[in-house]
Amino acid sequence: MNAKTAVTPKQSRRVRVTFVVYDWPDNVCGPASWVQRLLPALESHGIESSCLALCWEAPGPLVRELQKLGIPVCHSICSESTENRIRWVLQQVQELRPDVFVPNLVVPALYAARWVRQSGVPTVGVLHSDDSFYKGVQDAFCCGRDDDALTAVVSVSEELHLQTLQRKLRHTDSVWIPYGVSVPPRLPRDSDCFRIGYVGRLSEEQKRISDVVRALCLCVREVSGTKAEIFGDGPDRGRVEQILAAEGAGLPITLVGRVEPSRIQQHLQQLDALLLLSDYEGLPIALLEAMACGVVPVVSEMKSGIPELVRDRETGWIVGDRTQSVVEAIRILRDDTELRSRLSVQARDFVAQKFSQEASVEAWAKLLQRLAKSSRPVTLKIPRDLRLPPVHPALAAEDPRAQQVSLRTVVLSAVRRTVRRLLTKR
């Protein structure tokens, strides 16, 4: 695996922290937005951040944005086995010599954390969502083998934090630090039109994007004086375009596409309602940003994250299905300006009081500074034999072991030889 951008660690007395992230060409996920806001903000707390990025296919917007912000970034393409990815991460950590290592949600880095911690450096994982992947992270790196246990795990929602506490962790400290967002000044909206939006990944998995798009089409068709905009990109963009062509033709609904995280609130300030109909979430940043702009959230009921933000008819609207109850909520919000105004103010005030960017950054700074005090780094030795535990089923998609990769290579080579032999006979 080849590092494309060299990282030179700075020599100083400041706390040095290395974060690890995933990136890909159309990356618009919440954890990406979170990290590109957190790392520069930690600078004012005396924390010097660097970043390692494992990229699918090619570096994406997260790597580019971090580089623009002056964060040292080293990246590598995820084209080899988990073992090789682990060794690449350990080589970079060996050069950087951080005081704290944050493998975040990156599976090879979570495995690498074992040897980083053995070298005297505290390690921190992050639980971003309430799905099977993060339950696998808890199983493998909080409740599994003692050697693989992280020093601390941060949950972005209170529900995730409670889940980890219920696991009775032996060696890992569970910490709750919500995402934080800035609260911009209120701007006047177009009173002649009720604007609904969706912000996030265009993905069927978790986000139920087809249901979202169909619900938006239904709303603008059945509720007069409404418009809809879809912000984001993702693996199912083609499906979104098909639905818009078939069901949204001639309707005031627009696929805007990806918008830089630094500019998204400019668009959100023009919306009246934000639609989120996911199966599950952690603490959705898009929803936080929208509420900070006074946008009323219209959401499906979920166990994690959403109850911490949306109180029905107080800070937003919880719908019972993804069709007619959405239309009814939008109709009421469009017609009842007093109700809409009250929900808008209460949503904005709630985020300002409990989920500010400043509070989130300060909590992270305190955690990292506390862990750095216990940091006793010695020479990090990269073992020849990694001796990893068996692949956890929930992490398997991001954990291709060397044996599997070798078998795939052998099979593909055999297929190619057979094809060449058949072509030669012709």
Give structural notes.
With 426 residues, the chain is α/β, with parallel strands linked by helices. The chain has two domains: 15-180 and 361-404, Rossmann fold (3-Layer(aba) Sandwich), CATH 3.40.50.2000; 194-355, Glycogen Phosphorylase B (Rossmann fold, 3-Layer(aba) Sandwich). It has helices at residues 30-42, 61-68, 82-96, 107-118, 132-141, 158-166, 209-222, 237-247, 264-268, 285-292, 306-309, 324-335, 337-354, 357-373, 402-425; strands at residues 15-23, 47-55, 73-77, 100-104, 123-127, 152-155, 173-176, 194-199, 226-231, 253-257, 273-276, 296-300, 317-319. The chain has a seven-stranded parallel sheet with strand order 3-2-1-4-5-6-7, with helices on both faces. A six-stranded parallel sheet has the order 10-9-8-11-12-13. Helix 7 crosses helix 12 (324-335) and helix 10 packs across helix 13 (337-354). The chain is globular and about 65 Å long. Mean pLDDT is 90; it is low at 1-12 and 406-426.
Question: Could you give the topology of this structure?
Answer:
Blueprint: E1 15-23, H1 30-42, E2 47-55, H2 61-68, E3 73-77, H3 82-96, E4 100-104, H4 107-118, E5 123-127, H5 132-141, E6 152-155, H6 158-166, E7 173-176, E8 194-199, H7 209-222, E9 226-231, H8 237-247, E10 253-257, H9 264-268, E11 273-276, H10 285-292, E12 296-300, H11 306-309, E13 317-319, H12 324-335, H13 337-354, H14 357-373, H15 402-425
Parallel strand pairs: 1-2, 1-4, 2-3, 4-5, 5-6, 6-7, 8-9, 8-11, 9-10, 11-12, 12-13
